[in-house]
Amino acid sequence: MTRGPTIGILTGGGDCPGLNAVIRAATKSAIRLGYDMVGFLRGYEGLVDPVGYMPLDAQNTAGILLQGGTILGSTNKGRFTSLVGRGERVGIDPELLTQAAATVRQLGLSGLICVGGDGSLGIAEQLHAHGVPVVGVPKTIDNDLCGTAFTFGFDSAVATATDALDRLHTTAASHERIMVLEVMGRHAGWIALHAGIAGGGDVILLPEIAWTFEGVCRKIVERDREGKRFTLIVVAEGAHLPNGELVHGDAAAGRGQVKLGGIGEIVAGEVSGRLGRVARTVVLGHLQRGGSPTPFDRMLATEFGAHAVRLVHEGRFGEMVCYRPPEIASLPIAEAVGRLSTVDPRGSAVQAARALGIGFGDDEDGVPFGRGGAGPSGQ
Ligand code: F6P
Questions:
Q1: How many angstroms is it from 192 CA to the middle of ligand 1?
Q2: Any atom of ligand 1 within 6 Å of the Cβ of 140
């Protein structure tokens, strides 16, 4: 049992920059409202482990605003896994949910703030159905959560991928090479799209737009003709091959999602073979998940943390904070999880990219929007 009114917080799923900023903001604002704060360790596991939490206060959360990772630890594998295989959702063992609910009750928590992506918030929703007073905070570098314009972590991941493209640009130009940058994004190509545009990429391959190797090669040849003898290709790890397959290593041991990766090397090999050109691959991987959050992510994470505490204080359980520009708002967790936010192939960012001549490896490359492929005069 805790001493006074207390709020719990945990971070679940894959980490991302900004988690500590949420923990700090929630702790600071909870203290000012008269609450004590406890943080559960290793995500939801901390709820079923007798020594699974630590007190959070002004001292141990000082200076963590700019720290990557999470001081509480996290896990996206193990007993509390709601997504398996290629994203199928499964129910958590009811016995585990009962144990977790008992911990929250025994500690007398006023509320439990669960910070996570689609999978982790799906668990939060199940806990809520088990009577736990839960409030959700959306995070993921992939930005694929519904109900919020942005998740924190995304801007930092885009900054890392853009910096990588800036660096690849000069070496690609110097050696007249094709450079393929593979970025994260399981189901959604937000990172590839935003970094591809911000980093001056030439071809962007997304899970949302079907592409062919011919389409990719066509863009490279077009650039060659324009005297630009190098090409930057950005590919999302979750982009399907032209035959519809996803590229992945071994399925994760036990419960958990398939580990994606390797499409960059396949694209580089195929393009190099077809055009007789040198191509190199860089897989950015977990560099996108580490490091200090950008100022935008610090701001968003801070607002999310403070707003989550306000929801607990007002007894608005089962809700998830969200960003509805220019405001921070909230919606039922159930409305946000289980249906991912993906790139709209006809959205403004894709349109802007096409207008600049950025290729998506499909037949619409070079076709101005609204002309239905009928050429410059629209005839
Ligand atoms: O969900 C975020 C994400 O970064 C995905 O883009 C990626 O496929 C996955 O996490 C990798 O997670 P891990 O290596 O931690 O299993």
A1: 14
A2: yes
Q: Which domain holds residue 229?
A: 157-290+342-355
pLDDT tens by residue, 83-118: 655 566 778 899 999 999 999 999 999 999 999 999
Residues 6+ apart with CB under 8 A from 37: 6, 7, 8, 9, 26, 27, 30, 31, 55, 56, 57
Q: Are residues 73 and 12 located together in one domain of the fold? A: yes
Which neighbouring-strand residues pair with 40? 53
Helix (H, G, I), strand (E, B) or coil at 70: coil
Pick the residue whose CA is nearest to atom 12 on ligand 1: 14
108-158 pLDDT, tens per residue? Answer: 999 999 999 999 999 999 999 999 999 999 999 999 999 999 999 999 999
Going by alpha carbons, the residue nearest to atom 16 of ligand 1 is: 259
pTM (global) more than 0.85: yes
Atom of ligand 1 nearest to the CA of 260: 8
Assess whether the C-beta atom of 143 lies below 6 angstroms from ligand 1. no
Q: How many whole angstroms from 263 Cα to the centroid of ligand 1?
A: 15
Side-chain-side CA neighbours of residue 34 (13 Å): 4
How far is ligand 1, taken at its centre, from the CA of residue 190, in Å? 14
49 is catalytic: no
Residue nearest to atom 15 of ligand 1 (CA): 14
Same-domain check for residues 146 and 29: yes
Query: Measured between alpha carbons, how far is 131 from 134 in angstroms, rounded to an integer?
Result: 9
Do 251 and 280 sit in the same domain of this protein?
A: yes
* Alpha-carbon separation of residue 22 from 7, 43, 110, 161, 310 (angstroms): 14, 14, 18, 23, 13
How many structural domains are present in the chain? Answer: 2
Contacts of 281 (CB under 8 A, 6+ apart): 179, 180, 181, 182, 264, 265, 267, 268
C-alpha 154 to ligand 1 mean position (Å) = 13
